[in-house]
Amino acid sequence: xxxxxxxxxxxxxxxxxxxxxxxxxxxxxxxxxxxxxxxxxxxxxxxxxxxxxxxxxxxxxxxxxxxxxxxxxxxxxxxxxxxxxxxxxxxxxxxxxxxxxxxxxxxxxxxxxxxxxxxxxxxxxxxxxxxxxxxxxxxxxxxxxxxxxxxxxxxxxxxxxxxxxxxxxxxxxxxxxxxxxxxxxxxxxxxxxxxxxxxxxxxxxxxxxxxxxxxxxxxxxxxxxxxxxxxxxxxxxxxxxxxxxxxxxxxxxxxxxxxxxxxxxxxxxxxxxxxxxxxxxxxxxxxxxxxxxxxxxxxxxxxx
Length: 304
Known about the structure:
By secondary structure, this protein is α/β, with parallel strands linked by helices. Helix content is 40%, strand content 17%. The radius of gyration is 18 Å and the shape is globular. The mean pLDDT is 88.
């Protein structure tokens, strides 16, 4: 397992520099997919199976492990700043979680910016959830989770489910979610965006602004997802948050957990000292196994 200082140095060199280097997001995406494909060899190590499918024009991937129960589904929304995707690493992390909780994973390949803008990514995620309900999956056996931008989509999806009077999933978890997507940040409550501007080894402010401009080039931030911490959390399922203390998004989790508790929602918040953004996606990272165990313990509290 890589200790945090070494992992941080690797990420600063291999990820942060690439975020800064590529102005063309499509070129950046192609590069990340190429690099990610090198990890596909680890599928065999995780003893996982992938099955591509399509639901109402939305491509998805089923992730199955030996312990998967077909009637228990983890709808997982991958991160990537709404612009990128790493299907190998995300699929493998999903497999590790599914192996701990005995679920089958379902990961939508939602539309990405700059070709598509919000709310089209959320529409694709909603399509996947509605399909599960229409197919007869019991919402008490469905969990929704996501990381980074996928964490943002997870919270937005829960709000959409609520707004449409659909049954909620049994519980939900968010890993380093991005829950304040506008440049209008209340610094009295979001100190990590100032405190960690030089500490975050993946997503400093200039990088976030680059992705933000691609997501909503019109700068129309009227949709609730862009200020989701101001939404009413009442009626949401139990929520589990994890974040690293040195990432600028740390307080997105802290504030969301606070809003959740104030709304009477059963809430867990875990902050990892000196851990980078979504560190648990890297199977060789220190505490990646512990992080997945904590997710599993949370889920298993609510689902048999």
